[in-house]
Recover the amino acids of this structure.
């Protein structure tokens, strides 16, 4: 991709309507544009990040044995009336009527619809367990949408639903998904903290929320320091659930069960929530299966959500400085930016084009900044959009047989020879 042919409408000034870092930087970096309150168009750079996060989430769901489908954004009210949630859900649900006068709604979640799909096709315990997921846009009519994509009205979410014969097997499914969530967030370069949580309007009696550490987070977390040293290859969900972790309004310093020297205090942002709610929906929506004794039993269910569009903002809150965004490699819109400081110089342009083509051959996600503009703008734009690896090509350096290699994550830079540039960058871009 060449910058001169792409669409990245960066802004120098901070937008007046933006209150938090991620909202400011997403607008300045040309990632989003507000359409109406709490609703955004995702511009090309923002969409690339959104897709990177979506792909990581999908891959970890696949590894955990969840099966992907796709449910509609618009749902009939009939199922929600049967479950008893249509009136109870509140004004956050956008209720509409179609041209025939039928009550419809823009789905804020999918427990009812997925239960109906399940009960239409599965009737035997032999087909259990099942875990179905989709990645779909949701709408919740927030009273006060704010903070950009962190608390919007329309948002992209991964939600999945487990179906099991009994409570014991349902908790196995729950713990399996708990582990998948930890692995998902670790892959994005984040530090996830799991906390016991309220179930809210979803219902049930077992729930955990997942917060990621960010210096500008909205919650204050108190947690066992061991939660900062997780190995994705040795996740033990029951052990993790036994560690102490609490938000500020639930932390009791006097009765805290662990020693003070083992407590860490950090800011966090919620990015995921999981629930086990038993037979709440299966009983009301007729999701029964026959057990081995021929008895019909309502299935035990769980639901699991990750805010994919919210994660874009949350990652920026965790990774930024006063110059802009600092994307982790796994979610960056581009892995490498080749910055040609003097595109009108033939040697600079030929060298930049040569590197660009070689990295394309290596299937590196690369953008070539070939714009004819000031050096200052080039450098500041690349700092702002946060591409993690930057290869800077200038006339003076080329005369000395070197180029500059910059790591945006730690803001380190070094001069390297032309001959060693490719191997250096291939090494730097390994995830």
């Amino acid at each position: 991709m060449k910058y001169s042919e792409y669409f990245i409408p960066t802004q120098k000034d901070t937008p007046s309507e933006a209150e938090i870092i991620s909202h400011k930087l997403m607008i300045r970096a040309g990632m989003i544009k507000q359409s109406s309150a709490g609703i955004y168009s995702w511009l090309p750079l923002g969409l690339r990040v959104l897709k990177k996060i979506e792909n990581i989430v999908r891959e970890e769901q696949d590894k955990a044995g969840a099966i992907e489908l796709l449910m509609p954004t618009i749902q009939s009210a009939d199922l929600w009336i049967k479950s008893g949630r249509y009136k109870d859900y509140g004004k956050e649900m956008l209720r509409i009527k179609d041209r025939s006068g039928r009550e419809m709604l823009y789905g804020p979640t999918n427990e009812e619809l997925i239960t109906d799909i399940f009960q239409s096709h599965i009737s035997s315990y032999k087909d259990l367990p099942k875990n179905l997921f989709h990645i779909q846009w949701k709408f919740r009519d927030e009273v006060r949408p704010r903070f950009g994509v962190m608390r919007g009205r329309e948002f992209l979410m991964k939600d999945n639903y487990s179906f099991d014969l009994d409570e014991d097997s349902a908790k196995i499914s729950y713990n399996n998904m708990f582990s998948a969530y930890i692995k998902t967030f670790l892959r994005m370069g984040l530090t996830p903290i799991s906390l016991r949580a309220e179930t809210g309007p979803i219902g049930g009696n077992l729930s955990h929320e997942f917060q990621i550490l960010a210096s500008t987070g909205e919650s204050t977390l108190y947690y066992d320091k061991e939660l900062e040293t997780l190995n994705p290859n040795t996740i033990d969900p029951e052990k993790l659930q036994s560690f102490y972790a609490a938000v500020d309004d639930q932390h009791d310093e006097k009765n805290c069960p662990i020693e003070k020297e083992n407590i860490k205090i950090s800011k966090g942002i919620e990015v995921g929530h999981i629930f086990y709610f038993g037979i709440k929906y299966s009983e009301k929506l007729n999701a029964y299966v026959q057990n081995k004794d021929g008895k019909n039993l309502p299935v035990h269910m769980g639901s699991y959500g990750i805010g994919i569009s919210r994660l874009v903002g949350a990652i920026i809150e965790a990774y930024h400085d006063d110059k802009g965004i600092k994307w982790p490699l796994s979610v960056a819109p581009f892995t490498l930016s080749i910055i040609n400081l003097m595109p009108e110089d033939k040697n600079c342009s030929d060298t930049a084009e040569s590197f660009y083509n070689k990295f394309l051959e290596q299937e590196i996600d690369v953008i070539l900044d070939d714009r004819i503009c000031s050096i200052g703008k080039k450098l500041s734009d690349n700092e702002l959009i946060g591409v993690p690896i930057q290869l800077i090509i200038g006339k003076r350096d080329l005369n000395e047989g070197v180029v500059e290699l910059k790591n945006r994550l730690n803001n380190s830079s070094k001069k390297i020879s032309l001959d060693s540039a490719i191997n250096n960058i291939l090494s730097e871009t390994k995830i």
Remarks:
- The longest helix spans residues 167-187.
- The longest strand covers residues 263-278.
- The two ends are 21 Å apart (CA to CA).
